[in-house]
Amino acid sequence: MKKKLLLGLLILTFGLSGCGSAPKMQDGFYSAEMSDYSHGWKEYICIMVKNNKIVYTEFNAKDPGGYIKAWDNAYMQNMESVTGTYPNEYTRYYAAELLERQNASDLDALTGATSSGSNFKRLTAAVIGQAIAGSSDTKIVESAE
Fold first, then answer.
1. What whole-number distance in Å separates Cα of residue 76 and Cα of residue 128?
2. CA–CA separation, 37 and 35 (whole Å)
3. Per-residue b/e over 46-63, b at no fewer than 16 CB within 10 Å?
4. Which of 1, 55, 98, 112 matches a 20 to 30 Å C-alpha distance to 87?
5. Which helix (H) or strand (E) holds 32?
6. Measured between alpha carbons, how far is 112 from 67 in angstroms, rounded to an integer?
7. How far lies 55's CA from each of 41, 52, 68, 104, in Å?
8. What confidence score (pLDDT) does residue 19 get?
9. Among 35, 59, 64, 32, which Cα is nearest to 135's?
10. Confidence (pLDDT) at 16
11. pLDDT value of residue 83
12. How far, in Å, CA of 6 to CA of 114, rounded?
């Protein structure tokens, strides 16, 4: 009788333990981008998920011709002299933080890149939603007003 009761409690315990667990991300590549260009650039994020973990992240911005913001040396020099950071620095920082933390909800924005930090958080939430749904469509995130 005690063995049956113990077995029943174990089944109940392990059976209920999955009820409150977070939804799992499906393996694959997922992307999201802002709906509008800001100062000539549209920010985007791409992630790769494997075994419910983000294993690759690319965060950047592109112009209408597809040129990547982090490659623009003149933009980098102008921005760094004014703000103390530049796209190739802060995009890599945000991407590394996402890989480490697996979410961006408590991410600290870098001084000089707070707008991009805000967009990064919004894009990350959208792309994680895509990964949970298993949707390979690019999610469009409305720009903040």
1. 29
2. 7
3. bbebeeeebeebebbbbe
4. 55
5. strand 28-34
6. 22
7. 26, 9, 22, 15
8. 55
9. 32
10. 43
11. 80
12. 54
Backbone torsion region of residue 65, taken as left when φ is above 0, otherwise alpha when ψ lies between -120 and 50, otherwise beta: alpha
- Would you say 60 and 43 are in contact if contact means Cβ atoms under 8 Å apart? yes
Helix (H) or strand (E) holding 128: helix 114-133
Burial (CB count <10 Å: 0-12, 13-18, 19+), residue 6:
exposed
First-to-last alpha carbon distance for the chain, in angstroms, is 65
Amino acid code (one letter) for 63: D
Residue 86's identity, in one-letter code, is Y
pLDDT of residue 49: 98
- Please report where in the chains the tokens 């991009």 appear, as a residue: 116
Which of the residues in the chain have pLDDT under 70? 1-20, 145
* Chain position carrying tokens 């870098």: 110
